[in-house]
Specification:
single chain, 435 residues, alpha/beta, seven-stranded mixed β-sheet, globular, binds guanine, binds zinc ion
Length: 435
Amino acid sequence: MADQTPTLLRGRLLSFKSAPGGPDDTEAFTYVEDGAVLMQNGKIAAQGQYEDLLNQFPDSTARIVDHRPHLILPGFIDTHIHFPQAQVIASWADQLLDWLNDYTFPAEMRFADKAHGDRIALEFFDALVAHGTTTAVAYCSSHPASVDAYFEEAQRRGMLMLGGKTMMDRNAPAPLCDTAQSSYDDSKALIDAWHGRGRAHYVITPRFAITSTPQQLEAAGTLLKEHPDCHLQTHINENHNEIALTRELYPDAAHYLGVYESFGLLGSKTLLGHCIHMTGSEMQIMRETGSVAVFCPTSNLFLGSGLFDKAGLESAGIRTAIATDVGGGTSYSMLRTLDEGYKILQLQRQRLHPLASFYWATRGNAEALSLAGRIGTLDKGTDADLVVLNARATGPMALRMETVETLSEELFVLQTLGDDRAVVETYAAGRPLKT
Ligand code: GUN
Ligand code: ZN
């Protein structure tokens, strides 16, 4: 977007420098009460005090958008979501494997039709934007056409999106199954077509060990070796029946993570969804390889999967991220996700401070994706992906805000009571997408 008119957004700025060590860690973030962000050519050209920016750019022809008294943050990042599950969300199922067989696989089969993917992509991206999410990491279906539908829509909106074709060659209906060879060929062609084109990032996507033969996991490992700048995503240790079946299918593996390790799937660009029921050896390998554990709170509650041990994983030196996991997850909102995550951690006597929450959904997730140099902050030179939040968006929120005195309290109101109604605007590459 080279000829974009510069835009100056005025509001209360909040951006993180590091993970807050506690409630009083003011070094971890920057808060500017009367701040401004200057956006130009899709980037953040400057940010800071409003008065300073006006003085710095006296002859600026920038259009000024006054978002006061709202908060301006980096856009939310959702590190695990399923594009073909937009019509699976809110399906009454027992647990993971029944939910997959009864609802998810039939819904994903419809993505063989490109027109269906195109239609769902419109709605899916509308939902992301409405909820303030500017970057997401998605599983598409096993059909290459679904990846085209996904990245085409991302490109139309100028959004930095990650995603890939789900590789699955067994234990699913035939129309969803590829083969080790065809999944390798199709993924490679999609990487060539999409990775690095505009803001698109390709993610090598073997669904999980149950739906892949050893030959297919080997193909995924080969793809990762051939394309080390691509991410890889899969699922692990979400559900007890899933773990038991994986052990039957891979009897020689020392544990579930050993399956992925043996095919070279682990590393700093590997995103492992769920990581709930982890053994000590698995945690050690996670740390050594720098792989990321992705927490999906609304999904873990909805499917009755279990409680993610954030403190345990992080104290073992494991990188973590947080995500919606729609359609096992029940909301596109990262605010709702943080709220449910807070409750899961409460059950384990782990108290997530609101500053840590908002760090996690922005810079923390960007760090987990190794993309913090481009997204997740308000730093000059990074991509102008922003969200504007109103903590008084509803009657109950406004009433509660009457007694709020600190930024942390305001963030906690947003997280506990907020949803898409609290999202005033979403900017991707400097363009307003919500209104
Ligand atoms: N494990 C394998 N596939 C899936 C999926 O689509 N959703 C969730 N939550 N877990 C999975
Ligand atoms: Zn998932």
